[in-house]
Amino acid sequence: MKNRSFIKNKLKLALLAPAVCFSLMLTSCEKDVVELDPFDRLTEASAFTTPERVELAVAGVYDAAQSGFYAGGAVRGYPFGAAHVEQGDNRGEDMLNLEAFYAITYGSTYNAASANNVYHFETLYSVINKANIVIEGVEKAVADGLITPEVGNAYLGEVRMLRALSNHELLVHFARPYNHTADASHPGVPIRTIPVNTPARVEEARQQGRNTVKEGYDAILADLDYAETNLPETRAAGAKISRATKGAAIALKSRVKLHMRDWQGVVTEGNKLITGTTTFTSPIGGYALTASPDAPWASNSSNSESIFSFMNTANDNASVNGSLGQMYFAGTGGRGLVAISPLIWNAAFWPANDARRQIITTTSRAIFTRKYRDPQTQTDWSPIIRYAEVLLNVAEAESRLGNSGRALDLLNAVRGRSTDQTYSGLSGDALTQAIVNERRIEFLGEGMRWKDIHRLAKEGKFGPAGIPAKVASTSNHIPQYNAASGTFPAATIPFIPYDDFRFIWPIPVSEVASNPVLAAQQNPGY
């Protein structure tokens, strides 16, 4: 199969749906549906008529995930081109919102009509619906003999992995964590496996309510199991990171099982990608930690550590109002709207000699990450999962299972490439806490902080038992980055406890207005 870059400057898939802008159901609400056969789009009738068009349809699901619509049809990287990083960071305390762009997310003042959470919800369901349309189309193409079953199964593996990724993102923002109830029987999100692309299906979907969280995770794992079975272990250099692989499906399963607190399941999945005792590599995909913590960012389209990322290019990106380089980079050309928080910068568990403290740009106002460094052409890729996460996922699971020796080895493999201050002699809760702390450092600026807060909050032991207190924006934060100065940062945006309704986002007003079942199932408090 061709490298996905084959598609980036060609036709984007826009499968036409009924002219009802109902985001749970329809493929996209990017534009009013006016032209029945637009010259630059493929209709469903034509999208699965040649092998080349089938591949283009599959690429269209990636494109929907990388550059979905925003208010007025703008592209701001919803959901996975940039927005999952920016929203995930601003829901936590380790990145510092400086301007109005993420103020609602950062201050937890959202409601059912707030743009950031509304478009995250709507674009995630757009990805899911496009995936479902492609699944149906690929199955027909195989049945018609247009493509071989092997090729068809690989395509299905790709879009099912993207569907699983989207469903998990929905669950960590719009539903309580897996352990909120003993059997995860509390409300999750609607799980859709049938395309909503006819008037009859729209009406059927209008009456669908929320599945339980357990049902959601079961569906995610079924998709990832299928993807693992049918995806290739590797791809050509240009697509190795930007296109789904067997290793990516396994890596995501280790994350999902961590959220489920299935510790042995995390170890089982992670072990498929781990060989070695102190230096670790993957027998599938050849993944390994890069020698330097900066290497995945200096070459984010080609390195040994990045398992799956979304490609951004100079002419297909999240734009000046959404790209990672614009939002996070404070050097030439960057807007620098999100900085590193003094809270994490001053954390005692982050060594002063840690090389990750050098992946920064310092201005007269704040300290910023340099993980994203191309604001001019905005080609920084959007990270989804790295090998470092697999190692730390398994480290935490091993620690919770009482296997302290291996947990320490995995933790120190990640920590040791950045600092000589590695851990020894830790076990039990102290070891688990060290691993969670290491995640805060290692994944800083990658949108991972909310995922960890979400899965740990109910337990209330290794992280904040709710939405953490945060530093508010001021004109000058520089003194706060040096605790010895006596100007230690005050977290003036208050802590919000786990039981508060604001811990999860509301179902958007556009959804509850269209679906009476969902209207009765709105998250309490909204």
Automatic annotation (TrEMBL):
Membrane found in the keyword field: yes
All copies of domain SusD-like N-terminal, residue ranges: 105-258
Species assigned in the record: Pontibacter ramchanderi
UniProt entry keywords in alphabetical sequence: Cell outer membrane, Membrane, Signal
Protein name, per record: Putative outer membrane starch-binding protein
Keyword Membrane assigned: yes
Family, as annotated: Belongs to the SusD family.
Domain RagB/SusD: 354-526
Lineage of source species: Bacteria, Pseudomonadati, Bacteroidota, Cytophagia, Cytophagales
Highest rank taxon of the organism: Bacteria
GO CC, alphabetical: cell outer membrane
